[in-house]
């Protein structure tokens, strides 16, 4: 169930062989890629893809990312990425991530923060018009 404060998306992913280290577990750097998989799925589900943002004349670089590891993932396992957009009055995209293994145990959690830059690479201090319209449509 989704509240008016946050929107969530859940995506299932299978660990590929090339994502594991010699110990057979997912190399820590791939978790940031999994976060991106979550953002991409979120965008497709809720109508806020990178292509939508680019068509509106903006880019959204990541300015901060955090990642905490609790349990390992191994080759062949499937896991869920739960991606939540945290509603903010600031002109930024704040996503929180939770990765759950096949036993529904929390494997990893993290957050990314993205800002809006216009076509001249100027930082937007207020929500771009297209983004505010999207938030209004989504009830945020």
UniProtKB/TrEMBL annotation:
GO terms for molecular function: fatty acyl-CoA hydrolase activity. Transmembrane segments: none annotated. This is Acyl-CoA thioester hydrolase. The keyword Calcium does not apply. Keywords: Hydrolase. It comes from Chryseobacterium taeanense. Belongs to the 4-hydroxybenzoyl-CoA thioesterase family. The keyword Hydrolase applies. NCBIfam families: YbgC/FadM family acyl-CoA thioesterase.
